[in-house]
């Protein structure tokens, strides 16, 4: 493999995501080739193809623990995915460490559409960057330097692996984000705003990117080109399960929830976050906007907990990534 190992491997992940999205049947394994003569990765869902000395390495991904590990003649490298996001390297196949780290972090999200079909709703990943004292922004709303450059690249990788990005109305007005993929290669996700009015949507419609959706408004005065989804709920709050089912019906099978705290906390509190990513930076703001806004619990034993989780260094901080423990499934296994 050449000096652009990570870029080629990232492109392979995008090809896997595309192939998985087109596969309607459940599959227990996936094979893909890191390099081909035409520059595009070959992908096979559910069926191996032989390794060849005249092409790049073949990678096997096992999604079912009952499937036996393929021999080296079928796959140079073998990974197993368990608990939604736990990647186990069974055989490294001589892949460079940066590529192994890339697969360890992002390979699970290439299969989000499979989980969505099983759940009957869009698969949801929530991400936030916070200080050591649990703040995602100052009282004035400044949050730009909490995450760091590598966290920004991570966010753009997750956007590229997701069908849609979700934010709330306050985040739209305060940050005026573009919600596009710019720091890596990848398809532009749909940009989804939960709001009762179209205020601030020009920040999205004025730049090129994925389709724009407005959920929770009747669409009056919405800018041209905005897809209005007039969902309503008690006290103006739409149940997050209804949001994810509606998005699934529109072909959006995976979403990346980028904020703000109220929006992320609603999905989390209603049990509709499948994977939580929290980037913790070595900063202390002292005061500011809190990361989570959930109802109080009577004791520590009643707290919301992560099931499987891992810690990944990012810039000078640490990202905690985990699945959410369910009351009927305390280990959080999928």
Question: What does it look like?
Answer:
This protein is of the alpha/beta class and 334 residues long. The chain folds into 2 domains: 5-111, no CATH class; 120-324, 3-Layer(aba) Sandwich (Dihydrofolate Reductase, subunit A), CATH 3.40.430.10. It is built from 8 helices and 16 strands. The protein has helices at 5-22, 97-106, 112-119, 149-161, 169-175, 202-205, 240-249, 261-269, and strands at 29-33, 43-45, 58-62, 77-82, 86-91, 123-130, 135-137, 164-168, 190-194, 212-215, 226-229, 254-259, 275-280, 289-290, 306-314, 317-324. It has a 9-stranded mixed β-sheet, with helices on both faces. The two termini are 34 Å apart.
Pick out its properties.
8 helices, 24% helix, alpha/beta, 334 residues, nine-stranded mixed beta sheet, Dihydrofolate Reductase, subunit A
Q: What is the arithmetic mean of pLDDT? A: 90
Give the beta-strand count. 16
CATH C-level label of the largest domain: Alpha Beta
Taking the sheet with the most strands, its summary is: 9 strands, mixed
**Could you give the order of the helices and strands?**
HEEEEEHHEEHEHEHEEHEHEEEE
Describe the strand arrangement of the main beta sheet, using strand numbers.
Answer: 11-10-9-8-12-6-13-16-15
Distance between the termini: 34 Å
Number of helices: 8
Architecture (CATH level 2) name of the largest domain: 3-Layer(aba) Sandwich
Rg over CA atoms, rounded to whole Å, is 20 Å
**Count of domains:** 2
Q: Which consecutive residue ranges, at least 5 long each, have pLDDT under 50?
A: 330-334
